[in-house]
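Input structure tokens:
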């Protein structure tokens, strides 16, 4: 267990957690893209993978400005969210339903990240680290856009076909 004695130490701890989360996500997103059958979803995962690599670089830049290393912490929450995503990757069934499950897993990740980035942005603001806060806000905005895009894709996936097939099987 670590001891935090200042607002800056808290910021650094939270940034390390996000760095771990983002680096774990860099490894997971290509698998999600490969599993997706909806072309918009596949493209969305691939684009977010590229964006996530930029988030990692941004966090490295922030930590450099704070004269700290981004490494040294394992984000257990992201580890759990990715484990849930792996369960989806092993599901069998209608592709539209699997895509919907992938979106659900991805949106859980996005909401976790948005909470984390909102927190570190606020901590940076409180410390007067305006340039850092701006960088973190940029990432927060991108995470929010990804979440909205996932919602749009979810609304467009044709899951009625899967439900119709289930009804026919029951007859």
């Amino acid at each position: 267990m670590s001891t935090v004695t200042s607002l800056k130490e808290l910021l650094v701890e939270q940034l390390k957690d996000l760095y771990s989360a983002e680096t774990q996500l860099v490894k997971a997103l290509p698998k999600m893209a490969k599993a997706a059958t909806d072309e918009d979803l596949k493209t969305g995962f691939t684009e977010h993978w590229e964006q996530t690599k930029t988030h990692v670089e941004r966090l490295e830049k922030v930590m450099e400005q704070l004269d700290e290393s981004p490494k040294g912490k394992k984000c257990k929450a992201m580890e759990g969210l990715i484990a849930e995503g792996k369960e989806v990757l092993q599901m069998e069934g209608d592709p539209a339903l699997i895509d919907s499950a992938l979106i659900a897993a991805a949106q859980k990740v996005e909401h976790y990240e948005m909470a984390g980035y909102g927190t570190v942005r606020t901590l940076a603001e409180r410390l007067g680290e305006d340039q850092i806060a701006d960088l973190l806000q940029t990432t927060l905005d991108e995470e929010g856009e990804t979440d909205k895009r996932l919602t749009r894709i979810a609304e467009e996936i044709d899951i009625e076909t899967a439900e119709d097939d289930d009804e026919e099987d029951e007859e």
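DSSP finds six helices and no strands in the chain. The mean pLDDT is 92.
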